[in-house]
Design brief:
The complex is a heterodimer of chains A (237) and B (507).
Chain A: E1 3-5, H1 9-14, H2 16-28, H3 44-49, H4 52-66, E2 71-74, H5 77-90, H6 95-98, E3 101-103, H7 104-111, E4 124-127, H8 131-136, H9 142-148, E5 154-156, H10 171-174, H11 176-193, E6 197-200, H12 203-215, E7 221-224, H13 225-230
Parallel strand pairs in A: 1-2, 2-3, 4-5, 4-6, 6-7
Chain B: H1 16-24, H2 27-49, H3 54-70, H4 72-85, E1 89-93, H5 96-110, E2 114-117, H6 121-126, H7 128-134, E3 138-141, H8 144-151, H9 168-178, H10 190-207, E4 210-213, E5 217-219, E6 224-229, H11 233-239, E7 243-249, E8 253-254, H12 257-271, E9 279-284, E10 294-300, H13 304-308, H14 324-328, H15 330-335, H16 346-356, H17 362-366, H18 376-380, H19 387-401, H20 406-419, H21 422-434, H22 436-439, E11 444-445, H23 453-456, E12 461-462, H24 469-476, E13 485-488, H25 497-502
Helix pairs in contact in B: 3-12, 9-10, 16-19
């Protein structure tokens, strides 16, 4: 199986540690992964802001870059949903490729058939199920299945977990007051758990919640799920 | 009512973000809304969970509505024929002005100057009360929440519970001040408030000669109209007056009585979280000696034909006005209904108003952006309107046909240009990494310039990393070559100073 990593523009630019964790994790599970250098962005920001023509250019670029691979795995549930739900509508020829794109937890549980990835992470952790992972991709409890198998983890439930954190891409700028009000409630819920670490399957939402946690000096760090799953006793993250 | 207060116009309303800003800053409003929507959200989830065939019902509701919309001309002609056969009179209104004209003329022909009203979204949409007031006709709302809104010279802020932004002490104050027959010592207990409203309204029901209603469903093949309600005020208005005028959007049709079986399950559970609403009234034309002697049906287009022409946007016309999407919407919960600048607030309003009114104004062009696209509305919708899909679709229309926003357009074009080429993206990433010590000396950004400043009002932004992933991959051959500058990532400890900082460990 020829596996490509679609890291996404946000992770590539801002969160390289998530990409390194993906590589480390997949190699540990016996699968090599390539990073096609032609990749940039799935087009979600442009599409969701109303710039459809720009989005179509990016969809075309994505399809040219990844079409040769058997499977594409990405650490962003939101981008995976964009590709699977919207790429075929914007460019019908991309339907075949779109069906071979998997968000990390789907790839691990459904394609590789593992839930115990041999991770070790001795911290109190709470998990935020992002809206697109939940209501567009329907990842269900796959992330929790993976987290529950992590040795040493103290996994605590997040109150009102399925409520949106208020990120929403350019929504966070265009409607910043409403976005911040939603985020404040999410931060309150996170603090109630007493967790040291908040994790999710999307760094964009974590950037948003983490930005407010940092501003309010909450003492909670945000970590992508991939980094927890990549962490081992010999090689902690 | 002063003339100023009698005209709660939506024209020239501020854009959604401006209006929402004020609501977010009002802690009492947010408290009222969070409590009310939170309660109904839970109750609705329970009411829906009771049915094991909810998914099938939802699919049926969607298909029946889509079938009607695809054959709307046919069903409208059938409805007109059947209503006429049963002794009613059918009127066709192209827009709000025509509909208001028709209703005003019908009321004037009776010689009356007062009408009682059953809660109706269509008449809110066309501003009927205000239009009638200009003609010297007083329209009295008889739904309790609509009465609170009307007495308070206010606008509705929710489809089902128009006074959701008011709490009971607000209501007591409004009644004491504006309801002539309210007891001077009226308390704020729900029972006392309801009793005061009941006494006030009873006098109206008994004296009114003309009633105006909306319509929840119109059964084409029998010409039967249906109104669902909870308070019995609808039953009073539909049976006591001599003349009944009903205004309905053309999309309210179902083909047969049998189809009601689906919607009479979907609507109450989705809207009030009840298995069945207390009052369901149906009527077909006129019957001598029983109910109104004169019945008029006004079929309202008002932008619906334009909406129907949009292949993606037309699904908004499936809406049965249950308001489940409002109750689950995190944006509605914080922004309140008034921010949407229309009688249709919340997610459904964000896709309906810009379609029926057009996307030319600032408020209408801002509505499709009044969502984080979290998808809770689609999940709750009993007729499976993919609201996020329509929002995204309308955003493209707003960019193409709405008011110009040159700064945003330039930024999006520049971002698109950069992202179209991996080489240009790599260059931008190198520039970001090079600036990290300057823009984020403490590992995070406290303040961003220009429009990005909206982010750092309440949130820190992360510092750019020392190098992008693609730079790391190229330099280390995907982590296979030794990485002296960064430990031995990815096989190494991964706990470099930078990595820790990116995770906020120094916060």
């Amino acid at each position: 199986m020829k596996i490509a990593l679609f890291l996404t523009c946000v992770n590539d630019t801002m969160y390289p540690e998530t990409g390194k964790a993906m590589v480390r994790l997949l190699r540990r599970l016996g699968h090599d992964v390539e990073f096609p250098p032609g990749q940039t962005c799935c087009g979600q920001m442009h599409l969701n802001t109303g710039y459809r023509t720009q989005a179509k250019h990016l969809v075309k670029g994505f399809s040219e870059t990844f079409d040769a691979y058997d499977a594409v795995v990405t650490p962003s549930a939101s981008c995976a949903a964009m590709i699977r739900d919207w790429h075929p509508r914007l460019a019908p020829r991309t339907a075949g490729l779109a069906s071979r794109v998997h968000e990390l937890t789907e790839f691990l549980v459904d394609v590789l058939g593992v839930t115990d990835v041999g991770a070790y992470y001795p911290h109190r952790v709470t998990y935020h199920p992002t809206c697109h992972s939940l209501r567009m991709l329907h990842v269900g409890d796959r992330p929790l299945k993976l987290l529950r198998e992590v040795r040493g983890i103290d996994l605590v439930d997040l109150p009102d977990a399925t409520q949106c954190c208020g990120f929403g891409g350019t929504f966070a700028l265009k409607n910043s007051e409403v976005s911040a009000a939603m985020c404040a409630d999410k931060v309150t819920a996170v603090r109630e758990t007493g967790a040291e670490t908040l994790c999710a399957a999307d760094n964009s939402c974590l950037m948003h919640i983490g930005g407010a946690l940092s501003r309010t000096r909450a003492g909670v760090r945000t970590v992508h799920l991939a980094e927890i799953l990549a962490s081992t006793e010999e090689d902690p993250s | 009512m002063t003339s100023q207060n009698a005209m709660p116009t939506y024209l020239g309303m501020p854009s959604f973000p401006d209006a929402a800003r004020r609501a977010v800053a009002d802690p009492r409003l947010r408290g009222n809304l969070a409590h009310a929507t939170g309660t109904i959200r839970e109750r609705r989830a329970d009411a829906v969970a009771e049915l094991d065939d909810w998914g099938a019902l939802r699919e049926s509701g969607k298909q029946i509505k889509d079938h009607v919309l695809a054959n709307l001309g046919h069903y409208l002609r059938v409805l007109e024929e059947k209503v006429t056969e049963a002794g009613g009179t059918v009127h066709w209104a192209r827009d709000a002005a025509e509909a208001n004209r028709i209703v005003a003329d019908l009321v004037k022909a009776t010689g009356e100057t007062e009408v009682v009203k059953v809660k109706s979204m269509a008449t809110q949409e066309i501003g009927l009360n205000e239009a009638l007031a200009e003609e010297g006709i007083a329209a009295y709302e008889t739904d309790l929440a609509e009465l609170i809104v009307q007495l308070g010279h206010d606008r509705p802020s929710h489809i089902l519970v128009p006074a959701i932004h008011r709490n009971r002490s607000d209501i007591r104050d409004i009644f004491r001040k504006e309801m002539p027959d309210a007891p001077a010592d009226l308390s704020d207990s729900p029972a006392d408030l309801a009793e005061a409203a009941r006494r006030h309204l009873r006098a109206k029901f008994l004296s009114a000669k003309v009633a105006v209603s909306g319509v929840n469903f119109a059964v084409a093949d029998t010409g039967t109209l249906v109104v669902l309600e909870s308070e019995g005020n609808g039953r009073m208005c539909l049976t006591l007056p001599e003349t009944l005028i009903s205004v309905m959007g053309v999309e309210k049709i179902v083909p047969t009585m049998r189809d009601l079986e689906v919607f009479l399950q979907l609507l109450p559970r989705s809207s009030t979280a009840e298995r069945m609403n207390p009052y369901t009234s149906t009527w077909t034309g006129v019957h001598p000696g029983d109910g109104p002697r004169d019945f008029h049906l006004v079929l309202l287009d008002n932008g619906r034909t334009d909406t129907l022409a949009d292949e993606v946007g037309r699904q908004a016309l499936r809406c049965i006005r249950c308001s489940a999407c409002l109750n689950v919407c995190p944006v509605y919960e914080r922004a309140g209904g008034h921010a949407y600048g229309s009688p249709y607030p919340g997610p459904i309003g964000a896709i309906l108003s810009p379609q029926i009114r057009g996307i030319g104004s600032e408020v209408d062009a801002s509505l499709p952006y009044a969502s984080s696209l979290c998808g809770a509305c689609f999940e709750a919708c009993p007729v499976a309107i993919d609201i996020p899909e329509v929002l995204v679709h309308l955003r493209a229309r707003a960019v193409e046909d709405g008011p110009r926003h040159p700064v945003e357009k330039a930024a999006m074009t520049a971002a698109g240009w950069t992202l179209r080429s991996p080489a240009r993206l790599a260059l931008a990433q190198r520039a970001a990494s090079a600036s990290r010590r300057i823009v984020a000396p403490r590992g995070r950004i406290r303040r961003l310039p220009g429009p990005l400043g909206a982010w750092t009002e309440t949130r820190d932004a992360p510092a750019p990393p020392k190098e992008s992933f693609r730079a790391w991959w190229a330099r280390t051959d995907g982590g296979r070559a030794p990485d002296p500058g960064h430990g031995t990532d990815p096989a190494g400890p991964g706990g470099t100073e930078d990595a820790k900082r990116e995770k906020g460990e120094d916060a």
